[in-house]
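Record 1 of the preview.
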Amino acid sequence: MDAVVDVDVVDEAMQRLGASGSLSRSDQDASGDVIYDLLVEVGMNPVDAETTVRGLGFSVAAAASERSPNPSGLSVVSLKDETSRAALERALLVGVQLARMDDDHAGVSDDAVAFASLRQRADDVEMKLFDDRKRRRLDFYSRAVLVLQDRVRAERDPVLKASAAEILGRFDEELVALQDEMNLRMAELPGEESLFWGDSEDRRRYYFKMGVTNSLRRSGHLNSLGHLYRFRGVNYDVEEAFQLAGEDEPLLLRAALLDLTTLVSLRPADVRRITSERRLVRTFRTRKVE
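->
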């Protein structure tokens, strides 16, 4: 999350908001300042941020362009925590989709060829669900929503507060639209014809765990999986890997205990809610300790 954001992705995301014509221009300075501060706080170079804001037709007050982002970061959660949440969201969606898919070939065994085939299947699912550009746009919107929520809570100036709330509403709409697209993508992938075959449940749960651990390993989110992969290679033990991941992220273990029908019925909005609840629980615990 400390890396500079992709300018092209930000420009595309912001142009989608501006193109709708729904962003008010009644107060150019307020909207421009809020968007500028937002872009800088999520990691965009200030010069690029100002160019993007002016390209949307908003002005940027001189005082805004001279400000540095809040050095203390967000008041409730961190952008680093949002990276973790997003990685878990992707992993769970990949696992759910893998568990939904037809079980005819039942490729679960210690055989290296079968395991490689299943791992490739998990990679293919992730690529179809999250093409790189869409994933980066989703990550940007998620980060932006956190910053804007914090701005709305903390802002004292009523004009800036109203502008931040308006822009937050548009980002929320874009997130919902992306979730709807994800629903369609999941529906287009091979589905659930043999979902209720009696002996397939264990295999489907294995597929779920394979999808989750493979995605988390690819994302580099959990050091434990990185170590396991380095020591065991590509044919790591899925059950062991999932248990290790669950020790770091208990929500994974809770998800694996769901009734199978409930598990494979999870939609992108459901998964986002589950992972967001994880963030709230961690925030509560942190604040309570303090």
